[in-house]
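Researcher: Structure prediction, please.
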Amino acid sequence: MKLDSQDKILLKVSLEKELDRINKQLTEHTNDYSGKWSDYKEKVKWDIIANRDKVDSLLKKVNEDNGSLSW
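Model: Predicted structure follows.
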């Protein structure tokens, strides 16, 4: 997956939008949650870790193919 500079910019914007969507979703879940905070906090922690791994994995693949892509 070889990317030119415009593709890198589009990828960066897409990743930022996805992180914003995840953050919004977590905020909505927080506002709607009526159970035990400790249980919810544990769920959110693992949701964040799962999504972070996806983003890190994609960035690692892009960086391997194209050099450094930084935020």
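Model: Residues 26 and 40 are 10 Å apart (CA to CA).
Researcher: Thanks, that helps.
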